[in-house]
Amino acid sequence: ARLPSSSLVPEDPTVLLTIAGMLQFKPVFMGQAERAVPCATTTQKCVRTNDIENVGVTARHHTFFEMLGNFSFGDYFKKEAIQYAWELATKEYGLDETRVYVSVFREDDEAYAIWRDVVGVPDERIKRMDEADNFWAAGPTGPCGPCSELYWDFHPERGAEGIDLEDDSRFIEFYNLVFMEMNRDASGKTAPLKNKNIDTGMGLERMAQILQGKPNNYETDLIRPIIDKAASMAGISYDDADDATKLKLKVIGDHTRAVAYLVSDGVLPSNVGRGYIVRRLLRRVVRCGRLLGVKAPEGAEAFTPAIAEVAVGMSGDCDPEVANRSQKIYEEFEREELRFAKTLGRGEEILADMIAAAKAKDAKAPELSGDDAFTLYDTYGFPLDITTDVATEQGVAVDAEGFEAAMEVARTLSRDARVTVDVTAGDLLATIADELGEPTRFTGYGSLVEQSVTVRAIVRAGERVDSAAAGETVEVVLDATPFYAEGGGQVGDEGEIQLANGVVLSVRDCRKAAGGRVFVHVCEVTGDPRGSVSVGDAVTAAVDAESRRRAMANHTATHLLQSALKRVVGEDVSQAGSLVNTERLRFDFNAPAGPSPAQLEEIEALVNGWIGDATDLVAQEMAIAEAKSRGATAMFGEKYGDVVRVVDVPGVSMELCGGTHVANTAEIGGFKIVSEAGIAAGVRRIEAVSGPGVVELLNQREGVVRELAGALRVPPEEIAGRVTSLMDDLRAAQNEAEALRGELAAAKSVALAADAIVASNGSRVLVARLDGVDPAALKSAAESLIAKLAGEAGEAGAAVVLGSGSADGKVGLVAIFDDEVQSAGGLKAGAVLGAA
Q1: Residues 6+ apart with CB under 8 A from 299
Q2: What are the tens digits of pLDDT across the range 647-681?
Q3: What's the pLDDT tens digit per position in 129-143?
Q4: Own/partner pairs for 131-139, CB < 8 Å, 24+ apart?
């Protein structure tokens, strides 16, 4: 079966972005999900940033790439996979057989024999290699197996004797075959897998380089048009450019492509997580473009959207949705470029001062401190890559470890985008699901109580057990359950599992495992201290009705909120995440700016109006194609099966959703927005309450109003006026105090002027301490002193450095050098303070 590419935003929580073609099939390879087809092929879009520094430097490194793959889930295996690979490479693509070399794992005699005896590859073109190159493993435990790789020889004239397949100047690996045939346990022993699988990958960019006869991937028709667009906007020619210029153009070509696809998949620039990857890549594009002199088109403020247009125009064969989201992509390119431009100039000045200070401190081995690199990131939005690039150009090293220590959030970003895919999580529950055969039957849409259900498995502290006693916390699997398992933003149900012997399992959470095949109830065993619960017991499962009712109200309110946002803010609003629990709801959405107060009032009014309309909800299952044709909204990045559940509030909202909902909008009761704020660049968050939560919120706020009215001794309706009056009085007092502090500092500084020393050239230099003054007053004193001393020094100039300390340990520093001192000595006040 030919299957579509999955999103760059993976379901797998162990990776930040989709980094391999096999990622969407991980649950199948692990036995956590049933195979939908016996075998498949895909063209998977991928992003890796763990080796971003090699982009443009080598002939083959990219951040964005397309991985062509064919997969077998217990269907064909090694012999067929090898034959298919050879046929595709030499027959379909027409590669010269004599220029294709093959590697196999050193102990895989079977693969060696197939290549030699079945396919006909001569011995001299088959190389045995070690685990580091030709053995794949999911992790310390789990599926594993040998690999076989195909290499293209760019220089056959060098002969076959003494070849090294790792010689990048001669060979490029273009096809990797993984034979997933064993399982490794905790002791390191391996045993044959019951169902042997095939996972292959062929890099489209590498194959394009081979077929088109280009010296590197960047000059193929996959990337070269983007490079040529950037070059033309800079008034240069790629072919005539020097290596440094070509490197910058390659970075622009690669990163523009990556950002376009990431934004299309809903990843927007920010300082955390996936958003940081987008910001990092886009700002490298901006800096390279500025260094090359890339100009924005006439009438435009930014140059990156015009380059992005080329990448979008070439995206159709890989992902047609990129073109459909083109306007959003161009807006994000422009917004981030202009945002970076605002701080780039000032940041470059600060960085130049920091580099000068580093050289002054240690001329032989200058190094920019991690704290300085973090300041550039935190204040001026300089990713570490850019700081390192600029510093390296000036011969200055950067303390990357210090930077990572100063910015804990950024420490894990590249590591989270690691190449290794962890496919070992959930082994025990997957094994349980395999043994049970039938998945857990969910009955919670129609009932909150299910009698005579059977305990099918118990897990305690990661170990499978036959029974559990009072006081123990366990995970329980039933054959059927009314408990909703956490999913789609809604938390799992709470309630009880009751036994006839008086034992009660207090259910604190419910979640899905093994690819959704089993529902796991997280319970504490209570009730009769002498009793226990055992596998095979008949029980009654009962969901807490009040908790479920509140969760349903909040979930339906979330659907209404999204519809209201689209009507008030704009149809391009898209969900970026949500959380629905019994207390409140949280809705994250993509938007360049937050709703205004008036818009928030309108949104609230719309939702409450729909609640008052008392509309019956319609929930039904249908084919996903039918659901989309009806206009049902899907959360981008979510993975849906062939049959989906559609929750429809007629005339208001229609969404793909497996959550629980009220039967009629009137059951929600009411809706109130608690807060709205930005949580990342381009991402907003609304928190709200519904039903009983509205009453609780209003009661809480009424209590605050009563307390304030009592403290201010005014009626509630006069609180705002009274607070305004008090604030005016406070500001007036603060201004008066600040003026007095400034006058005091100026008075003290008069005496300090006499302490200035006269340099050999006649310059006046004053370094003094002025304690007990705030930063504003310290600056005022420094300005007063520089004016006085500069007047005395004339053309020789003056320099003033003042410091202050406070009782709480805080230190203030101010430095002012007049123009004469700066031009004569080449000193800048910022550099002096940076070295302090």
Answers
A1: none
A2: 999 999 999 999 999 999 999 999 999 999 988 76
A3: 999 889 988 777 778
A4: 131/105, 133/103, 133/166, 134/103, 134/104, 134/105, 134/106, 134/108, 135/105, 136/178, 136/180, 136/199, 137/184, 138/30, 138/421, 138/422, 138/423, 138/424, 139/420, 139/422, 139/423, 139/424
DSSP secondary structure, 615-651, as one string: PBPEEEEEEHHHHHHTT-B--TT----SEEEEEEETT
Phi, psi of 157 (to 5 degrees): -65, -15
The phi, psi pair for 294, rounded to 5°, reads -65, 130
DSSP string, 61-85: --SEEEEEEEEEESSS-HHHHHHHH
208: closest CA among 311, 91, 65, 99?
65
Q: Rounded CA gap, 181 and 108, in Å?
A: 11
Rounded to whole angstroms, the Cα distance separating 814 from 807 reads 19
- What are the pLDDT digits (tens) for 175-207? 999 999 988 877 888 888 888 999 999 999 999
Instruction: Return the DSSP state at 667.
Output: G
φ, ψ at 582 (rounded to 5°): -80, -15
**Whether the Cβ atoms of residue 568 and residue 604 lie closer than 8 Å to each other:** no
Q: In the 3-class helix/strand/coil scheme, how is 494-514 assigned residue by residue?
A: CEEEEECCCEEEEEEEEEEEC
DSSP string, 357-405: HHHHH-SSS-EE-HHHHHHHHHHH---HHHHHHHHHHTT-EE-HHHHHH
Helix/strand/coil for 227: helix
327-352: b (≥16 Cβ within 10 Å) or e: ebbbebbbbbbebbeeebeebbebbe
pLDDT per residue as tens digits for the range 217-231: 999 999 999 999 999
Q: Residue 427: its pLDDT value, please?
A: 63
Q: Do 41 and 70 touch, CB atoms closer than 8 A?
A: yes
Strands, DSSP E only, in 662-763? 671-680, 683-690, 757-758
Q: In angstroms, what is the C-alpha Rg of the chain?
A: 33
Task: Enter the pTM of the model.
Answer: 0.61
Q: Which tokens hold the place of 600?
A: 């928030």
CA pair distance 798, 536, nearest whole angstrom: 90
Strand duo 397-398 + 798-805: pairing:
unpaired
- Residue 778 near residue 812, CB atoms below 8 Å: yes
User: What value does the mean pLDDT of the chain take?
Assistant: 88
Neighbour count for residue 270 (Cβ, 10 Å): 18
Residue 221, pLDDT score: 95
User: What band does 321 get if pLDDT is binned at 50, 70 and 90?
Assistant: confident
Outline where DSSP puts E strands in 81-189: 100-105, 126-129, 135-137, 142-153, 171-184
Strands 480-481 and 495-499 turn out to be unpaired
Q: Which two tokens stand for residue 662?
A: 């009220």
Amino acid at 129: M
Helix-, strand-, coil-residue percentages of the chain, each rounded to 5: 45, 25, 30
Q: What's the distance, CA 77 to chain centroid?
A: 36
Q: Kindly report the number of other CB atoms within 10 A of residue 287's CB atom.
A: 22
